[in-house]
Amino acid sequence: MQAFTTLTGVAAPLPMINVDTDKIIPAKWLKTIKRTGLGVALFESMRYNEDGSEKPDFVLNKEPYRNAEILIAGDNFGCGSSREHAPWALLDFGIRCVIAPSFADIFYNNCFKNGILPIVLPQDEIDALMREAEQAQNPTFTIDLEKKEIVRPTGNAPIHFELDPHSRKCLLEGLDDIGQTLERAAAIGTFEGGQRRDQPWLYREA
Amino acid sequence: MATARTLFEKIWDSHLVDQQPDATALIYIDRHLVHEVTSPQAFEGLRNAGRKVRRPDATLAVPDHNVPTSDRSKGIADETSRIQVETLEKNCREFGVQLFGMNDVRQGIVHVIGPEQGFTLPGTTIVCGDSHTSTHGAFGALAFGIGTSEVEHVLATQTLLQKRPKTMRINVVGDLPVGCTAKDVILAIIGQIGTAGGTGYVVEYAGDVIRGLSMEGRMTICNMSIEAGARAGLIAPDEKTFAYLKGRPMAPKGAAWEAAVSYWKTLPSDEGATYDKEVVLDAAEIEPQVTWGTSPQDVVGVTGRVPDPKAVKDAERRASIERSLQYMGLEPNTPIEEVRIDKVFIGSCTNGRIEDLRVIAGLVKGKKVAQSVEAMIVPGSGLVKHQAEEEGLDVVFKEAGFDWREAGCSMCLGMNPDQLKPGERCASTSNRNFEGRQGKGGRTHLVSPAMAAAAALTGRLADVRKLA
Ligand code: SF4
């Protein structure tokens, strides 16, 4: 996984609440057996007309947001299914940071596994960032994960954000969870020994 | 005396492998269900790293999302769907995981077959790369959906890194009125607390109404916990739970059964245990529920009307209602009972079980599906289908004009050919009414099985209580 330290890029405003995972990537795209190639279908129903042409009003079809690397959205972003195809599609499009007042749990977790940083901020700060992303000449923001700060294009004071230490460390170092957990194999083995003794019915012997 | 603990706390505590100083916990996973859509990249990850599946005996796989629900003798026509199902078969062979293949009578929706086989057991931790894993909480198991990276993590290590969630208890009290079902209860709960109301929580459903529900009804409730934002829903195991599980193929037998039951009886929350949040819902005030919008919280009683965005103060909420109504093709203030429908979909992991089919058969026996309506019934599993046919329900359905199909997810999400066409309006017993969920441009109204039967017979979102 690619480490996340700082990110400087255009932020696209998407002032919608409850953006569900079907909206981020519809079911027909879930037939893939790969993690890549989903960027073209990101936000498909909002981004394209029936005939496949672009809807000119959708933010990611407009300059400079076509090259957005940051997305600013409304409450409860990523609700719905567990599909990791949603963060894969964002990543494949080039988005590595989503900022919203709240996220759905599974989507939030899935982001970290893919080097995407989800940032939670209070609604008034979201509103301010949303305005800047819409109105600034050059809506380029810098996300500094080391300092936990968002540096704004307008020169207004940076916005501070919080993140739990474990998730932050994993992103900063690009750590592979599985490798780390396997280092604790002894503890897992001990647990299994105890459980097998107390609840043998949980072990279906072949 | 030891401190009083909730059902959730008992399960959590007994699955802690290791607690890190930064508050992340490594918890052990007892049961892992796998389906074709969210697993290929996980198995590929294992293969690339040269890792094995740690507990094949704790893992069970089934294709459900992509499978056709019509004649399967010719296999799957759509090439990408076929490759995904074949990839699952190949991965299961390579990694030694048990699979119920497409033509196995035990095949079905992953959340239907787990309980049906007795793979789902009280007091366990259960995961699946699918958000409706919350269903299994009906058995007093801590069950939640995970992403594909976590699927890989569980396959390789049989554990997950988790932060301890908060706890919420929802007490459903009073008497559930005639004509109302578990589906109406959970839709009413979501309407009350909102689609993000449960975010960060594990919800325990309690109260007389919940105790009174069958296991099928409890599964319907827990299934839709995720629609309220909660990753997991829980219901304390009781005699009904044990009766449901006894004799199931993968449930413990003989002395192990006795030992298991006496352990399971220690699981219900202790008297005096506390929750981070408590919600009370008076069942007496519920009427059959119908969604009008594109989020499960957009719900109203069947005697109600489509809302008027003009009456909503909050600008974001107003914009979201306007957008929903435009998508749904509905005028503000229209009485729900006047909304005409084109299709009826009965099935899904919410309402595709035998009890649901019995309710519908009781309502449609000797009657006919309205001329203008196409109605399909997709059983939740091959065994549900078999059982229904044993009871002659299929004959009742076919005589009434329903399309009786093979088991799978089907039009719940339209990954197989069962899809709505743009603009088509459907009364559906599934769990999500998101834009495009049942097919691009399709319009979904979530209802109970009984209400779906009423819609099929009348051609509109009818009140089942008024059915002659
Ligand atoms: S029936 Fe629907 S909700 Fe349930 S697992 Fe299948 S697609 Fe998901």
TrEMBL record, chain A:
InterPro entries: 3-IsopropMal_deHydase_ssu (IPR004431), Aconitase/3IPM_dehydase_swvl (IPR015928), AconitaseA/IPMdHydase_ssu_swvl (IPR000573), IPMI_Swivel (IPR033940), LeuD (IPR050075). Pathway: Amino-acid biosynthesis; L-leucine biosynthesis; L-leucine from 3-methyl-2-oxobutanoate: step 2/4. It holds the Pfam family Aconitase_C. It comes from the Bacteria. Coiled coil: none annotated. One of its GO terms (biological process) is L-leucine biosynthetic process. It is an enzyme of class 4 (lyase). Keywords: Amino-acid biosynthesis, Branched-chain amino acid biosynthesis, Leucine biosynthesis, Lyase. Transmembrane segments: none annotated. Residues 1-123 form the Aconitase A/isopropylmalate dehydratase small subunit swivel domain. Its EC number is 4.2.1.33. One of its GO terms (cellular component) is 3-isopropylmalate dehydratase complex. It catalyses: (2R,3S)-3-isopropylmalate = (2S)-2-isopropylmalate. GO terms for molecular function: 3-isopropylmalate dehydratase activity. Catalyzes the isomerization between 2-isopropylmalate and 3-isopropylmalate, via the formation of 2-isopropylmaleate. Belongs to the LeuD family. LeuD type 1 subfamily. Heterodimer of LeuC and LeuD. HAMAP family: LeuD_type1. This is 3-isopropylmalate dehydratase small subunit. It comes from Marinimicrococcus flavescens. The gene is leuD.
TrEMBL record, chain B:
It comes from Marinimicrococcus flavescens. This is 3-isopropylmalate dehydratase large subunit. Catalyzes the isomerization between 2-isopropylmalate and 3-isopropylmalate, via the formation of 2-isopropylmaleate. Belongs to the aconitase/IPM isomerase family. LeuC type 1 subfamily. One of its GO terms (molecular function) is 4 iron, 4 sulfur cluster binding. CDD domains: IPMI. Its EC number is 4.2.1.33. Residues 9-459 form the Aconitase/3-isopropylmalate dehydratase large subunit alpha/beta/alpha domain. InterPro entries: 3-IsopropMal_deHydase_lsu, Acnase/IPM_dHydase_lsu_aba_1/3, Acoase/IPM_deHydtase_lsu_aba, Aconitase_4Fe-4S_BS, Aconitase_4Fe-4S_dom, IPM_dehydratase_rel_enz, IPMI_cat. Keywords: 4Fe-4S, Amino-acid biosynthesis, Branched-chain amino acid biosynthesis, Iron, Iron-sulfur, Leucine biosynthesis, Lyase, Metal-binding.
